[in-house]
Design brief:
The chain is α+β, with helices and mostly antiparallel strands and 212 residues long. It is built from five helices and twelve strands. It is elongated.
Length: 212
Amino acid sequence: MERRRIHVFRWDTDMELIIMGNKTCFIVRSTEAYLADSPQLQERYLFLLEVARNFELDGHTVEDLYDWAVEPVLPVFRIIQPPMGEEPSFLHEYLFPTTLAYTLRADSGRLTAVPDEREIRSRFGVVLPVDSFSTWPCFHPREIQLVPPCSPAIGPPPSQTPNKVLMSDGTVAFLKLIHQGEKSILKRELETYAKSKPVPSATRCPSRVSKD
């Protein structure tokens, strides 16, 4: 399964690892308490979190945490079939993907992945009054195609976080993702755009997207 990783660490003893690929999102969570039944697994987990904080420690890298945490869910990865052919990807698939969540727990000394039934919410988007964005063009995320990043001839591969999109009217635009909790930041940016002088018609002003 080809996959790209987005990782989020809470810098205490909790971990949340988000893995996206084949238009599916996997969320793998764990805490020190979930591994209390196995002191050996718990010790390994805490060490790998410390490695992640430092990116490298005692010959280990953050990749070791990825590999350790992902191993129990590899059987699920293998049954997710990749899309047929070179199908285009759309913003809706990135914002609201099919999502499977698991928690890592200790079971008889083994690291196991247990399905997590808690409600899953998108990490992106804030709610604003209609009058704060009514002047901007509106597009549905299913109408916005993601532009694949170009791989450089040398150097590391590009980030898989989308930053350029193709609108349904043929316009290519840069994308800025707004996370939950960034409402005040977005409001200030919209106010700044609203106060700006008129821009040439070839320049795209901010566009809003709607889930429904």
